[in-house]
Design a protein that fits this description.
heterodimer; A: about 200 residues; mainly alpha; Four Helix Bundle (Hemerythrin (Met), subunit A); 7 helices; B: about 550 residues; about 70% helix
Chain lengths: ~200, ~550
């Protein structure tokens, strides 16, 4: 049995998994592309109804958290445990912020009777119904990934605190970080597709 | 037997005993055996369902069940056979057992993930069983879950789709594990062109699993969301397009066809050279054709939708791409035949089954071209012709490759040998029954009998009766085959490490292998199919 940890192998497996996650969202982006082709003007109209400021703030929050996750990995490699813990807590806090903002966004839309199968959408233009249908499905699934990412980061945080993740064994933190970057990356595509369509 | 203990007597991780040593095992060989048990259960169940379906069709009108039961039953038959038998059969059982050994290593890269995949497989199967008994019963949508019916259907579509989602996850994680193992665990001295062909085929399959499975996952998620929230993404009333569902569905489900067949081709590529005592013809061509099928096969999904209302341009493009897949497939068939040419052929049950595979699979492949061409496809689309075609490929192909693999690796997995004569009888009867069963369906389809219909016009009765008769012959053949294999546990005729004269690494370790597979560091040959050492003794005797 090989006793050495093959960090490159663990990372390869993680990359393959992330790849499958991208394909998962890829299926939804295919739907987006097909429907955008069919209803370009309604997608633009729907996009104007979304709150761009909140979307932009969320983008910044996620980008910032991606940076701090990366910083925490570097910190643990340099044996700066306290720094790593601080960066991780900040990243998880960013995740919470993202979800809170998302909650207010969704809440406002639902308040205006815009949600799947709502009266306004069903009796309104089909193009708008599809736009908001995709909006809820894609941002909902993305939100679920944010939650999973936060759980992974929290587990990593616990491991850092009890020393299971340290400067010589940090694959758990490394992979959670990769997952968090994926969540960020997907948002980078979701944001312009919904908030910035013209 | 050797002094080393087999993996049946040593648990991994160490210290586990009894049932725990199985349920918590990290050992890829034990997991392979556990998959074998589960898959075998599902296969027998779905085989019985299939037989009931064809019995129902043997006479016009009601024979043994009503139309609703019939609809649920063909859905169940399809779901089980696809998700619980054909997709996992060869990769999960034989792949798990032999991929690490053929690569000269002691386990897969992520052993715990491997165990997790097995549990996902079992949970998926459990969900399928639960959906039979709760609520309004099993869906009657067919295994394709086409919208709008799957969204409106009052039966347990949600639960069944969840089961398929979980099974897809299990299959994808197995693929991920195999790709990582292939790259990181391979013996340092084994170059790419020294890897056995079965492992190469699993590698190609694993990529398709990783590439395509997430698409079906998201499609199933969308069905569930549509059922819960009526978003309307596939509902024309709300601006959606049902055709997009079909695209998403086949984007996975056509590549999945290659997940089913490529490992079977890998099995045959192992069996043919061994029993021809001759190096495989065109090793590199077979490797590249596996990868080519994996790539080209991912681009042909819409040939299931020629009559669904696509543009003529897409129909033309997808038809052309479909024909391209035939090229690497034919490369393999010709390579197998050329391997046997001027070989020193030794007939054994695995070889017989592999030969039946080549024969049936060729028919399946060629009738696939009939369906891939737009003109004839419009005529036979959704008829019994299609049913016969994909059973020739899935059952005549993958099914027989599975039987061949079972007979080929049985002595290695269990360390015992079965009797040959009943195996020959069983295999031949299965082959003959198979022809009797499916060839009438080709004719019925050409005559215009649709698939998935409960009842039919009087002119189709002879064909359906003959097919049902063939079905019973087929099942009798398989029962003989399985009983013969199971009897070997009673007879306990011990098998040697290398009963067939094989050259790949799994034949150089004891049968059954010890827990870490290799007692000493394996010696990697320059070429995995070099039979000079195997044929040397008999050539000396001849002199």
């Amino acid at each position: 049995m090989s006793s050495q940890i093959d960090r490159a192998g663990i990372k390869l497996g993680m990359w393959l998994f992330l790849y499958s996650e991208i394909i998962l969202f890829g299926g939804l982006f295919v739907l987006y592309a097909a429907y955008f082709h069919r209803y370009p003007e309604f997608f633009a109209e729907g996009g104007r109804e979304l709150n761009r400021v909140m979307g932009a703030v969320n983008t910044i929050v996620l980008l910032l958290s991606s940076f701090t996750v990366a910083a925490s990995i570097t910190a643990i490699q340099r044996k700066a445990k306290k720094q790593a813990v601080g960066f991780l807590i900040f990243s998880i806090f960013c995740g919470v912020t993202f979800l809170v903002i998302k909650y207010f966004e969704w809440g406002a839309k639902i308040h205006h009777d815009i949600y799947p199968n709502s009266e306004t959408l069903v009796s309104g233009e089909p193009g708008l119904n599809i736009f908001f249908g995709l909006y809820y499905v894609i941002t909902g699934l993305h939100g679920l990934h944010v939650i999973i990412g936060m759980i992974l980061l929290t587990i990593s945080l616990v491991y850092v605190l009890n020393g299971k993740v340290n400067s010589s064994r940090f694959s758990m933190l490394d992979n959670s970080g990769l997952y968090w970057h994926l969540v960020d990356l997907i948002w980078i595509f979701v944001f312009p597709l919904f908030y910035l369509v013209l | 037997m050797t002094a080393t203990q087999s993996f049946y007597h040593t648990s991994a991780p160490p210290g586990l005993t009894g049932i725990k040593s199985w349920l918590l095992t990290h050992d890829h060989k034990r997991l392979g055996i556990m998959y074998l048990g589960a898959v075998f259960f599902w296969f027998v169940l779905a085989m019985f369902l299939g037989l009931m379906l064809r019995t129902e069709l043997m006479t016009q009108g009601r024979t043994i069940m009503d139309a609703e039961t019939y609809n649920a039953m063909f859905t169940l038959h399809g779901v089980i056979m696809i998700f619980l038998f054909v997709i996992p059969a060869i990769p999960a059982i034989f792949g798990n057992f032999f991929l690490p050994i053929q690569l000269g290593t002691d386990d897969v890269f992520f052993p715990r993930l491997n165990l997790f995949s097995w549990y996902l497989f079992m949970i998926g199967g459990l969900f399928a069983i639960i959906s039979l008994f709760v609520g309004d019963g099993f869906p009657d949508t067919g295994w394709t879950f086409y919208v709008p019916f799957s969204v409106q259907d009052s039966k347990n579509v949600g639960l069944t789709v969840t089961a398929a989602f979980i099974l897809g996850m299990s299959s994808m994680l197995t693929g991920l594990n195999f790709v990582t193992t292939f790259h990181r665990m391979r013996d340092k001295s084994m170059g790419y062109m020294q890897i056995p062909l079965f492992t190469w085929s699993l590698y190609a399959t694993a990529w398709v699993q990783i590439l395509a499975t997430p698409v079906i996952s998201i499609t199933f998620v969308l069905i569930i969301l549509e059922r819960l929230f009526s978003i309307g993404l596939f509902d024309p009333d709300k601006g959606g397009d049902p055709l997009l569902y079909q695209h998403l569905f086949w984007m996975y489900s056509h590549p999945a066809v290659y997940v089913m067949i490529i490992p079977g081709m890998g099995v045959v590529s192992e069996i043919i050279p061994i029993f021809s005592r001759k190096s495989i013809f065109g090793y590199k061509a077979i490797v590249w054709s596996s990868m080519a099928i994996a790539v080209a096969g991912s681009l042909v999904w819409a040939h299931h939708m020629f009559t669904s209302g696509m543009s003529d341009v897409s129909v033309f493009v997808f038809s052309l791409l479909t024909y391209l897949v035939a090229i690497p497939t034919a490369v393999k068939v010709f390579s197998w035949i050329s391997t046997m040419y001027k070989g020193s052929i030794e007939m054994t049950p695995p070889l017989l089954l592999a030969l039946i595979f080549i024969f049936l699979f060729s028919i399946g492949g060629l009738t696939g071209l009939v369906l891939g061409a737009v003109g004839p496809d419009i005529h036979v689309h959704d008829t019994q012709f299609v049913v016969a075609h994909f059973h020739f490929v899935m059952f005549g192909g993958t099914g027989f490759a599975f039987f061949a693999a079972l007979h080929f690796w049985w002595p290695k997995m269990f360390g015992i040998m079965y009797r040959f004569k009943p195996a020959y009888i069983g295999a031949s009867l299965t082959g003959i029954g198979f022809m009797f069963h499916y060839i009438p369906m080709f004719i019925l389809g050409m005559q215009g009998m649709p698939r998935r219909y409960y009842d039919y016009l009087p002119q189709y009765e002879t064909g359906n009766f003959l097919a049902g008769f063939g079905g019973y012959l087929l099942v009798v053949g398989m029962v003989i085959m399985f009983v013969n294999l199971l009897m070997s546990f009673k007879q306990q005729v011990l098998a040697q490490a290398d009963p067939w004269g094989g050259t790949t690494l799994e034949w150089k370790v004891p049968s059954p292998p010890p827990v870490h597979n290799f007692i000493k560091k394996p010696q990697i040959d320059g070429f995995p199919y070099d039979f000079t050492k195997v044929t040397e003794p008999s050539q000396k005797r001849a002199k």
